Amino acid sequence: MVWIEIFHDEAFISITSGSEERKKSYPGKPNLRQVPKRIVIGQVPYVGDIEAVRRMGIRIGRAAQTFEIKSLYVTPFRPLEGFILKTFLDGVYEGIKSRYEIQKKAYSVKPHRVPVYVYDLYQFVRLKCDKPIIVTSTRGKPLVTVKDSIIDLFSKHKEIIILIGAHEGLPTGLFRAAELVIDLAPGITISTDNALTSAVIGLVTVLEESKIG
User: Fold this and answer.
1) CA torsion sign, 189 to 192 to 193 to 194?
2) Could you report the per-residue pLDDT of 67-117, keeping only the tens digit for each?
3) β-strands 10-15, 2-7 pairing
4) Which residue of 3, 25, 85, 114 has the smallest Cβ count within 10 Å?
């Protein structure tokens, strides 16, 4: 096998055995790309310094697009200054676009561009009350202790709702509407921009073990 790497104005050539190639995909390796496409995220917008709001939006948008989740709902639950919400949404769209452009070049099939909606959190829960809702909270049960329940939900339903708070968390009154309340990392407070990624990876890992794809 001949490898050619171009770096600036120089070309490097290497000849190796074909057995040394490490492919991204091989027979027997699970492909869980379809699982996140069944997930709808309800994300409370981050509120704070305006530049931090934008950065949070970018990171959340990029994470949502990385997994190609079914859709992302930005779900405030109290009055929010319009400019802050706009800045957060601008960041979300920027993050989605940047990741989507990379996926278009890297994937052999057209990627799913994540749609974004804005809806009051309580109304969003009412809208999705016929779907199983998973709440992420430090008050919840460790993921490992409810993995059988997670497997059961994904086995029976085509769409799963996940609610994610910001720095002040989710209103505890909504816990009554949830099928599950899970703590993604007991003893650790996960930052707002990492919560979506942590939730999806945690669920996908559980489902991979159960061979649900």
Assistant:
1) positive
2) 999 999 999 999 999 999 999 999 999 999 999 999 999 998 999 999 999
3) antiparallel
4) 25
Contact 207, 213 (CB under 8 A): yes
Question: Spelled out in words, what is the top-level CATH class assigned to the domain 32-209?
Answer: alpha beta
Do residues 140 and 181 touch, judged by C-beta distance below 8 A? yes
Judged by DSSP in three states, 5 sits in strand
| Measured distance CA(37)–CA(114) in Å, rounded | 9
Residue type, 179: E
Q: By the 8 A CB rule, do 170 and 163 touch?
A: yes
Give residue-wise pLDDT tens across range 148-206: 999 999 999 999 999 999 988 899 999 999 999 999 999 998 999 999 999 999 999 99
